[in-house]
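Morning. Coffee machine broken again, so started the prediction first thing and wrote up yesterday's gels while waiting. Chain of 612 residues, entered below exactly as on the submission form.
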Amino acid sequence: MRQLSAGVATLEGAELRYGFVNTQLRALVGEQAEGQRVIDQPGRLPASLLAILPQVYANGVPYVAKACVCTPQLGEQAAQCFDFALDPYHDEQGNLSGLLLLAVDVSEQEHARQQSHELVTKTRQLDARLRVLTETAPLITYTMDAQGHYTYASPQWYRFTGQNPVADLAAAWPLLIHPDDRLRVLYEAETARRQGTGWNYEYRLRRFDGEYRWMLSRSLPEVHLPDAPAYWHGALTEIHLQRELSEARRRGEAEVRFLADSIPELIWTATAEGLIDYYNQYTTEYSGLTKDELGPTGWVGLLYPEEQAEAARGWVRSIASGAPFEGEYHLRRHDGTYRWHVIRAQRLADGSGLRWFGTCTDVENQYRLRQVLQTQYDELARAHHDLDTFVYAASHDLRQPSLNLRGLFEELRRTATFTDPEQGLLLSMFDQALGQLDTTLLDLATTVRTQRQQQEPTESIDVELLVEEVLLGLHAKIVQSQARVELQLCPVPVLVYSRANLRSVLHNLLSNALKFAHPERPPHVVVHSYLTPDGQPVLQVQDNGLGMALDNPGSPQFRLFARQHAHIDGTGVGLYLVQRIVSSQGGRIEVASTVGQGTTFTIYWTQASPSA
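Came back before lunch.
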C-alpha cells in the first residue's frame, strides 16, 4: 500500500480520522496527518470533497469524484488534478468502520483533455468560418474522393445548376457538362486522381436556364504522407465573359492582321523598347526579305546608308520621349531601287502595355508630282511676275501719251474755235474720255502695286490715326458734299497689319461712301470697330448712299471693272482691290446693302504677328 503510485488513506470512525496514510497521499494532506480529523487537517484536499465525506460515511455508498482540482503547493505553476474514490469498509462483525480514500493523479490526462477540447472547439470555429467563406464567395467549391465521386458541393453549385439539394452529385454533375467537353473533363480528372496530382482545365457547364457557361476548374489533392491522396478539393469559377472577350479579341487580332496583310503598305509593330516584332505580308514582299532577315531593326536597315544614322537617332528619341515619329526617307525595294517613303509611328498605351504601331507609305509618285508641280508653280510665279511688270510698265508708259493728249486738248480748246453747234458737248465728251483713260491706267498701276505690297511687313497701327489721315486726304470731298463722318474705334484701337494695305482699304471704302452719296441727303458715314466673342477684330464702314443690288448679300462678287452706277465716274477697281487685300491676309469681307438706303461693309481681319 505504501508503494502504490496512487495516494491511499483510511479515514476511521465517524470523526473520519486519518489512520493509514501512504507516502503519495502525504503530499496532499501533510506529514502529520495520521490521527488527525480530516476536517482539522484537510491539507490540499478540495473543499467539495470534504463536504461529501460525511455523507458517504452516513449512507455507506461508494463515490468517485473525477478531475478534482487541488490547491497548488508553493512554487507550483499549475494546480494538480486527481480522481478521488471513497469506499466504505467494515470490521469483522460487518459494522461500518470508516472510509478508504484513493487519490490518482490525472493532471497530465486532464491537461491533454482540455487541449483536445480546445482543439476541437478551434477546429469547429475554423470549419464554420471556412464554410462561411466558401459559401459566400462568388465561386463553387467542391470535394471529390479517390473514386471520382463528388462528396461535397457548396450551395452556389445548386443555385447555378438549379439542381435539388438532395440530388446525387456523382450522377448529376457529369450530365451537366457540355457533351463536347464531357469525355475530356472526365479523362483529365481520372488521370489526375491516378497520378495523385491536381488539375486545371476549362469546360462548359449547363446553367439552370439551360445555357452553357464556361467554367474554370482548379483542384488540389489532400495529402497525408505516406498515404495516397483520398480527397481532392477544388473550386469552379465562371469565366464565360472573359472567354468571350478573349475569343473576340483573338478574332479581332486575326481580322486586323488579315487587313494589314491586305493593304499595299508596309505596316509593322514594335515593343516599348522599339524592337520590331511584327511585319505585314506586304513588307516581306516589298523588301524581298523574310521576317527573320528583317530582324528587330526592320525598316532602318532598308534606308539609304547616309540616312540610317539620322533615322535611328530620331527613332531612339521618340522611344525615349513617347513622341510620334515621322520622316521622309528612301526605302530599298526588293529590286534594289530606292523609293521615297513617309515613315510614321505612334505609341499606344493600354492595359496590355506599351506598343508602337508604324507604317511606311510609298510617296515616290507624289514626290515626283510635287517636284513637277513646284517647277510649274515657279514658272507660273515668274510668268505672273513678268505679267505684273508688263502691266505696270505699260500703264506707266501709256500715262505719258495720255498726259500729252490732255495737254494738247487743253491747248486746242484754248486757242482753236469750231463752228459746230455741238462743240461744247464734243469737248466735254473728249475731256471725259481722256480722264477715264488716265484713271484706268492709274488704277491698273495701283492694282499691281497693291498686289506687290501684300507681302510687306506688318506693324502695330493706330487705326484712328490712320483713318484721320485718310479723311484728311478726302477733306475737299467731305466739305463739298457736306458729309458727316462718325468714328467709333475705341474697341479695337490698334491693328497689326500692313500700313499701305490698310490705308488702301480705308481710302477705297471711305471715298466710295462719299462718291456714291444719295442726291437727296448729305452723306453720313460711320466707321465702327469691335471684337467678336472669339477675339477677332472687325471693322465696319456704313453709309446712307445709293446702295447696291446684290444677288447674294452674304458673299458679294467684287469683280474687276464691275460697276452698278454707270452715271457716276469710276473704273470698278476699288472694291476689287479691297477684296484682294483682305482675302490675301486670311480675312474676309461681307456686304449688306439696300438700294436707295445705303451700304455696310464688314471686314473680319486676321492679324499676323508684327514683323521684326
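The domain at 137-238 is CATH 3.30.450.20 (Beta-Lactamase). Going to sketch it on the whiteboard this afternoon.
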